[in-house]
Amino acid sequence: MKTNYERNIKVTMNEVHQGEQRRSSTTLNYGICNYYFGVILYPEIALKAKTDKRYKDPDARYRKWLEGKVIDWAKTQPQARSDVLERTLLELIYNNGYRLGLDKNKDNNGLDV
Q: Is 52 strand, coil or helix?
């Protein structure tokens, strides 16, 4: 069951559609955003935001931090459609995993039999 902090993230941004700039809103999957921004890009900052004891509710603090990162990233994207934005995030996750796999097997040189 999803808690209140794991609900999808709403993003409101400007986009250009048929030569006209308009304000658009969409929602992005929390799990995808959490994995990309909290695990891949900013693991140290995310851990600090999750475990900071100075705040009454660290989960709320982390949610606010994550929403800020997602909104800032989404504003750099050309379209405000959730399927396009989520596909872009998944491609970034895949590319990161691919690079890590190449780095990990650098000495193997593809000589597996």
A: coil
